[in-house]
Automatic annotation (TrEMBL):
InterPro entries: Pept_HybD-like_dom_sf, YyaC. The lineage of its organism: Bacteria, Bacillati, Bacillota, Bacilli, Bacillales. This is Spore protease YyaC. It holds the Pfam family DUF1256.
Length: 207
């Protein structure tokens, strides 16, 4: 059964467990349907902090993805330079100042049901960071990737602090893999169309 049969090519949400085989490739195929046809400046905003194990998903993802040396996606938010609740608005102002009409992929950790722990969710909508901790922060992104790192409930700040680092690291590597595959796709995904257009222009059909 192919990806289209399982999830629907036009679906605005895709959810997979981080141990799913070929997760980066599957999610990349799905996400690329949401990208704008006309090229734009691409930005990944990896939200979170290294001061909390569960909330480190974003910064770890940013760190792993940055070591890949992406050619088309600019990374904001790493372990050494995190984007978090305190500096989020300032970071967004900087991004919109440096990038012309950027297409933003927002990455963050989240809490959910016990049966959802370990799932990576991508949606064709912006991310609302800080909801787990009842913080009001600006929405981020054209599309979002979130990882369910632990169960929601009471004392959610404490829950994030007591999340297993090994799981968060493994999930971050998978999310980085998604971004890596997207970056690779951006090198050639629209080239066939361009080539075809050039061929049609140079060899017009004779009627």
């Amino acid at each position: 059964m192919n990806l289209k049969q399982r999830f629907g090519q036009e679906s605005s949400l895709l959810r997979l467990h981080y141990k799913e085989n070929n997760l980066p490739s599957l999610m990349c195929q799905h996400i690329m349907n949401w990208f704008p046809y006309q090229p734009r400046e691409y930005v990944a905003v990896c939200i979170g902090t290294d001061r909390s194990t569960g909330d480190a998903l974003g910064p770890l993802t940013g760190m792993y993805f940055q070591t890949y040396k992406p050619r088309h996606i600019r990374v904001y938010g790493t372990i050494h330079e995190p984007v978090h609740a305190v500096n989020l608005e300032e970071s967004l102002e900087r991004i919109y100042k440096l990038h012309n009409n950027p297409f933003i992929i927002a990455i963050d950790a989240c809490l959910g049901r016990s049966t959802s722990i370990g799932h990576i969710i991508t949606e064709k909508k912006s991310l609302q960071p800080g909801t787990a901790l009842n913080k009001t922060l600006p929405a981020v992104g054209d599309i979002s990737i979130t990882g369910v790192v632990n169960v929601s409930g009471f004392m959610e700040h404490s829950i994030l602090q007591n999340t297993r680092l090994s799981v968060v690291m493994d999930m971050a590597k998978q999310v980085s893999g998604i971004l890596e595959d997207i970056d690779d796709q951006l090198t050639y995904v629209r080239i066939p169309t361009v080539i075809q257009a050039r061929k049609e222009k140079s060899n017009p059909e004779i009627i």
